[in-house]
Amino acid sequence: MAKPIFPAFDPADVAETNVTTYPEPFRAANSRRWNRRLGDHAGLENFGVNLTRIVPGAQSSARHAHARQDEFVWVVSGEVVLETDEGAQTLRAGMCAGFPAGTGNAHRFVNRSSGDALILVVGDRTPFEEIAYPDIDLHGKAGADGRPAFARKDGTPYRAGASARKLSQPPREGVA
Amino acid sequence: MAKPIFPAFDPADVAETNVTTYPEPFRAANSRRWNRRLGDHAGLENFGVNLTRIVPGAQSSARHAHARQDEFVWVVSGEVVLETDEGAQTLRAGMCAGFPAGTGNAHRFVNRSSGDALILVVGDRTPFEEIAYPDIDLHGKAGADGRPAFARKDGTPYRAGASARKLSQPPREGVA
User: Fold this and answer.
1) What is the CA B108 to chain-centroid distance, rounded?
2) Among the CATH numbers 2.60.120.10, 3.90.226.10, 3.40.50.2300, 3.20.20.70, which is that of B20-151?
3) pLDDT digit string (tens) for B44-88?
4) Hey, are the CB atoms on B8 and A94 less than 8 Å from each other?
5) What is the C-alpha to C-alpha distance for residues B24 and B153, in angstroms, rounded to an integer?
6) Does A67 touch chain B (CB under 8 A)?
7) What share of chain A is helix, strand, coil (3-state, %, to 5)?
8) B107 at A interface, C-beta within 8 A
9) Which residues of chain A neighbour B96 with C-beta distances below 8 Å?
């Protein structure tokens, strides 16, 4: 079959990234899922669509609940464990899950299988979002663009903490 | 594998419907695609997610362009032809397409194969939407709920037309 022509495309042609905006010490746990930002690639602005590849042992995100943004996940391939307040359940390709804003029921997807799991994740960009993380000392808060900045639950910024550590242990020369 | 527990679910457990809000004479052409409203089933409000089964020879919708709402389509199984202003192209499972609001580039999906095609369709519900249909005398306009009502391009309501026909040719007794 011929290669698709824009606005259609093959997700494989969109670069994968494991970038996370989580602060330390949560970055490593969130860096073994690889996102292809399909919605951004297509020029969509009202919602995001990520094709997320979760390697064995990794998570899609820390367990979280959105206050204002809806989320929907479609399992494309592999097996993935969905963890919510009700516990854990394994989902296979062709199953799906929806997470309405404001329920307080936090979720994450974890790959406990021996192969990659692929999920399609859709979330809107309603402004002034708040994201609760029941399992770790993290809270996300978004402004008008709907993209969250993170802090501790008491509101203390994690950047200040990193800066304090930097003062007590300066980086070696040549290390950024 | 165990049956998924809400908020996860098997799309097969959501009823299929071929309901269309198109007015006559466009209803028949739009009644051979079957939707499972996965987003509504999950309780999502900010965007819709439909799993759409297009039978051979049928279309997902008339070719249309959104003014304010973004749309994203993931091909789940089968083969489907995407028609846009640039022409037609065949897409297979695992390919996708995005339709940003406001481009004016109209699209529809048609099944020209001999088997069912299954696509996952995501669209947000930005209010005061307008939908242009370049190929037929139809225009969609939504209010605050983002759900379109249809009229002719000159603004004449199709319902009035149906009512006028009713006057000139009254229904037989016992026919609703």
Assistant:
1) 9
2) 2.60.120.10
3) 999 999 999 999 999 999 999 999 999 999 999 999 999 999 999
4) no
5) 14
6) no
7) 10, 40, 50
8) yes
9) 8-9, 11, 38, 42, 49
